[in-house]
Amino acid sequence: MYLAYFDESGDSGYRSTISKAFVLGCVLVRSDQWLPALDALKAFRTALRIEHGIPMDFELKGHHLGRGKALKRFGLTEAERRRIYHGALQVLNDTGYFRVFGVVIRKDLIKARGRIDPRIEGWVRAIERVQSFAVENESFATLMPDVGHAELIKRLVRRMRRHNDVQGKFGTGAVVDHKLLNIVEDVSDRISHESYFVQAADWVAYAAHRAYYPLRRCCDNKVWFQLGDCRVLDVSRLNDRGDELNGMVDWPKP
User: Fold this and answer.
1) What is the pTM of this model?
2) Which domain holds residue 233?
């Protein structure tokens, strides 16, 4: 069994927003490796407390490390924030307990603005990738997102368990019924400041976000590559892209 933790970056609105994307980050943890995975995240947070005075219960989000405002009271330099963020991604890659992927819905490329809900486009793609991952690993998965989307996800999952037409794996144009037979139970959401795993999903979402919309200083478009071998590369097997962006789904295409 895999636990699929999710958090988001950007937002789903079209008006009164500066974000060009709605982005989901997913962290997959095998249930029998959950405790050592938690210990790895706790060890990272303990090091931050000792070195920088960041409390263990402080919610450490990707955009905090990217922009720095929420971390101002800790007196971190830009270089220190960058090093912490890179260290966070390194924990996910190096420990062997985590698999990750991202879904980037590019609102600036959506022509039917207001008629297409970026949340639905993002969550459908994310849920389908979790299903495929579970099948390929001969296992099952349950969805554990940050609070705020549980009812939407529940409706989507219940519908997709019964009927879900998608394009064939290799882009041939064939349509297959990709039912969610390996995703069990209803969504079990988590409050992000109470879950290191959801915060880790936020780091992934922010890295995916900046891969398409980089910040010149802290988070350029190469930061996604630091997730290395823990990326689930199959999610983007149909996409023509460099290695730096493998492990992400983006929609719509330019």
Assistant:
1) 0.92
2) 2-251
Total domains present in the chain:
1
> Which of 101, 114, 97 has the alpha carbon at shortest distance from 39?
97
Can you name the residues that pair with 55 across neighbouring β-strands?
Answer: none
Please give the span between the terminal C-alpha atoms of the chain, in angstroms, as a whole number.
Answer: 36
User: 3-class SS at 150?
Assistant: helix
* Alpha-carbon span 49 to 43, nearest angstrom: 10
Q: Which of 242, 234, 245, 174 is nearest to 209 (CA)?
A: 245
Measured between alpha carbons, how far is residue 59 from residues 54, 206, 216 in Å?
10, 14, 24
Q: Is the Cα dihedral 34, 40, 45, 49 positive or negative? A: positive
Question: Which tens digit of pLDDT belongs to each residue from 107-131?
Answer: 989 987 778 999 999 999 999 999 9
Alpha-carbon distance of 150 to 22, in angstroms, equals 16
Interval 152-197: pLDDT, tens: 999 999 999 887 766 555 455 555 567 889 999 888 999 998 999 9
Please state whether beta strands 248-251 and 141-145 pair in parallel, antiparallel, or not at all (unpaired).
unpaired
What is the spatial distance between Cα 149 and Cα 147, in angstroms, rounded to a whole number? 6
Q: How many Å apart are CA 38 and CA 91, to the nearest integer? A: 11
CATH classification at residue 217: 3.30.420.10
Q: Which of 30, 57, 29 is nearest to 42 (CA)?
A: 57
